[in-house]
Amino acid sequence: MDRRTRCKKKPVPAKPRTLPSFRLFVLEGMEGAFARIWSKKMEQNKKGLITAARAVCETFALEGEFSAGTVGAAIRTADGHIYTGICVDLGCGLGFCAEVAAMADMLKHHETRIEAMVAASKQGIMPPCGRCRETMVQIDRRNVDSRIILGEDREVSLRDLLPHHWLSI
Question: How far apart are CA 121 and CA 139, in angstroms?
Answer without folding.
Answer: 25
